[in-house]
Every structure is written in C-alpha cells, then in structure tokens.
C-alpha cells in the first residue's frame, strides 16, 4: 500500500492493494454499476455479493443494464465498472473501491449455483449478472 499525505487537516490518502480492496467489499451491500446504455454512460445502484472473487448482482430483465448486456453475443462479456464506497463525513474519512472488467448475464443453472443476492426494492429481479474484475483499485482517506 502506498500512502501520500494531503493538506486536509492531517488526513492521509492511501492507495489500496487488490487484497485490501476485496476485503473491504466482500461483506456485500450496495454498489454502483457504470455501463453504456446505448445513449451514453449510466450509473445505477445495485445490491451485490462477492462470489469467489467476482461480483454478482440482480436486475430487472427489462432494465437498461439487462438490455445492454443481452445485446452482446452469447457468452460474451460487456465491459462495466463497479464501485463501492463508505464514508464518514463527520470525520472526513472513508474508502472507495473501483472494479473494471467484463460482465454477463448468468444462465438459469448458473444463477441457481451463484451466491444469493437479495435486492432491496420489491419486484422481479430475474437477471443475475456476474462481473469478473480485470482491474481492482482503491483509496482510503484517514487520519
């Protein structure tokens, strides 16, 4: 891990290695998916789990994300970015992890075998998406 001091009241900006990034996001929760929806960049929040070093989340089959992924050739991956962060605004501390890589919709058999994801919103979330990170980076600000 590399560190660099900043000018904000003694706060330190630290670059995180891959292992620390994965440790921080492994509990799951809410992250944001960035993708091209055909009209340009889009970012949406999703509930996710980490499953064997990959990120799994669910979305509605008719969502823009699901449609963007379904336009790819069968078995092909679409490049997306996925970000998770946690901040304590009162203490001016927190961390952010960014993953970039390929994503694809899982088959019914793959969905059944994947770690379960429980979306917060109601309604059908029939599309299970797996993102395989090619790049993982992160930063933490602390005192």
Entry summary:
The protein contains 3 helices and 8 strands. It has helices at residues 18-25, 64-70, 108-113; strands at 2-5, 12-16, 29-36, 41-51, 54-59, 78-88, 93-105, 127-142.
3D architecture notes:
- By secondary structure, this protein is mainly beta.
- The chain has a single domain, classed as Electron Transport, Fmn-binding Protein, Chain A (Pnp Oxidase, Chain A, Roll).
- Helix content is 15%, strand content 52%.
- It has 3 helices and 8 strands; from the N terminus they run ββαβββαββαβ.
- The chain has helices at 18-25, 64-70, 108-113, and strands at residues 2-5, 12-16, 29-36, 41-51, 54-59, 78-88, 93-105, 127-142.
- Strands 3-4-5-8-7-6 form a 6-stranded antiparallel barrel.
- The longest helix is centred in the N-terminal third of the chain and has 8 residues, at 18-25.
- The chain is elongated, with a radius of gyration of 16 Å.
- The chain starts with a strand and ends with a strand.
- The mean pLDDT is 85.
């Amino acid at each position: 891990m590399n560190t660099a001091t900043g000018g904000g009241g003694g706060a330190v900006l630290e670059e995180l290695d891959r292992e620390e990034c994965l440790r921080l996001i492994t509990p799951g929760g809410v992250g944001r998916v960035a993708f091209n929806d055909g009209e340009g960049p889009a970012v949406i929040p999703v509930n996710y789990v980490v499953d064997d070093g990959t990120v799994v989340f669910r979305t509605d089959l008719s969502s823009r994300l699901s449609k963007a992924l379904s336009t790819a050739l069968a078995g092909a991956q679409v490049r997306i970015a996925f970000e998770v962060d946690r901040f304590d605004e009162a203490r001016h501390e927190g961390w952010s992890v960014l993953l970039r890589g390929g994503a694809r919709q899982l088959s019914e058999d793959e969905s059944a075998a994947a770690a379960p994801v429980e979306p917060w919103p109601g309604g059908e979330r029939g599309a299970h998406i797996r993102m395989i990170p090619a790049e993982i980076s992160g930063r933490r600000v602390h005192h």
